[in-house]
Design brief:
heterodimer; A: 308 residues; mainly alpha; MetI-like fold; 2 domains; 15 helices; 77% helix; flat; B: 338 residues; alpha/beta; eight-stranded mixed sheet; 12 helices; 12 strands; 22% strand
Chain lengths: 308, 338
Amino acid sequence: MWKFIFKRVFALIPVIIGVTLIVFFIMSLSPGDPAKMILGDEASPEAVQLLRQEMGLDDPLLIQYSRYMYNAIQGDMGLSYKSKKPVTEEIWARFPNTIKLTLTAMTLAVIISLPLGIIAAVRQNSFFDGFSMLLALFGVSMPPFWFGLLLILFFSLKLGWFPSSGSESLKSIVLPSVALGFLHMASIARTTRSSMLEVIRQDYIRTARSKGLSYSSVIRKHALKNALIPTITVVGLQVGVLLGGAVIVETVFAWPGVGRLMVQSIMGRDIPMVMGCIILFATGFTIVNLIVDLLYGFIDPRIRSMYT
Amino acid sequence: MSEHTTTAPIPTLEIKNLVVEYRTEDGIVHAVNGLDLRIEKGKTLGLVGETGAGKTTTGLAILRLVAQPPGVIVDGSIHLNGENLLMKSEKEMEKIRGKQVSMIFQDPMTSLNPVTRVEDQIAEVIELHEHLSWNESLAKARDMLELVGIPGERGVDYPHQFSGGMKQRVVIAIALACSPQLLISDEPTTALDVTIQAQVLQLMKNLREKYQMSMLMITHDLGIVVEICDLVSIMYAGRVVEHGSLEDIFNNTRHPYTEGLFNSLPNLEDRKAKLKPIKGLMPDPSNLPPGCAFCPRCDYAMEICHTDKPGKVYRTEDHFVECHLYSEQNIGEKVIGK
């Protein structure tokens, strides 16, 4: 088991090198001079040239990249062009917000969608099934920004129950997590339903029934564990994506998360900041995937035996 | 009927006129069409027929586990020790399944839950019906494993760590864990290779003696029938077309279908002899012929076979056949054969 974890953590290295390399080159290819951006339009060409040399912008790209990575490994991701503050500091200031939003939204989504998907499968073609799948259809088809705006309109403007933006109070997380959670609830419920439908047709479910177990305990003790693997995959992927910030929802609710930070940095061509965000996402995504793989093994002994 | 019950002992299982249909969008599949079965205490009945004859559906109907929808038990009665199972509530059925009636399923590869320890799967049924603590149930589960020839300490393993034959032993251990009065075995050896087949059959025979069980042996293998059964019912298109003792069926074969089954077996004396398969295919169960279901494939089909369903004709008290070739007068002699 530990060997497996070690191997997977080790595999992070090429992933991060690949991702940063691509982003670094793309950012350098895009037009605009960082030195000019830092100094402003009024700066003299001499001053710009001086800063370029100081920043090493005239060196070959590969050297610039190596220099960046060398510093990054030591925890120095450079200064933001815009705020002039260390990138790591800025990101760590925002990251807790992103985690908070991700966790509340996903908890909400899982708590609602799991029972929804299971009951829909067990009572296939019933009214409940139709209702919950219609709800799920709404969830996947509604653009989150639009749903977010509707929530603001109704719950902030009309009823005044929750603030429409910011992250100051405990209440302010409610609307963004509902907006995000509803979207993810939909796909989790659909996945759970379809994998449950497949599992309850399996022979071992019939064997369990032939033992005299009631239908509900067959579902609980035998079907659920087997049906959970696709659901975990979907939840894991979504958490991974959300760790990279829910850009749209964060923007609609002015939520100070990493997603919004990255979009603003891309717009402002704040290369060190973009790089920092990307490294964070890539690492986060891979770690979540590792956790998902370990959960598979926890649930299914056939997968566990492959890890050792 | 009433004077019958006072004289004869109550059979373990008595099925009368069972009708099971699968109502699908493409039409009604007539899986079982008026089936009669009777198994006395401690006896084994072989239910023999081709794939699709309705054998498994019959077994599932006894446990009331026919998938519903689309399956519907339309008519008939299934009496277990004199009590009609079709009148039982679902709660009452849960007390009967695994306790009084157990079933061994055809494919051991898929019959066990892949993510649950083998001993847990056995202990579960013991805890449920014998009202023991979980630890006592586990201990008994390991005893059951030993009984079917698997070391008890292997119980902590998962199904994928077992071979096919061992999995089938586990399935047998689950079925026998609460010493049922009736064991339904649905082709228990079909998925196993021949040497393992013999072991599993021997095991089932020993356990049958030990527990004094009645058994419904669903199979298409006449070799297994000789090995283990007391009585045989030949099933075709959801009906029993011939029924009798081993002696009746093997030496006094009457129905052309039964004859056809024997002819399609390899001949051990003359290994060069060609197999003589039954021509044609089983009729589509959603579109059965109006007369005898076998007549499109029968070499002896007469006019009446196409229009009228044959009734039972008895040769002895037990041995009967459903075929227009026979009447009270000629049932003593065999009118088919080369």
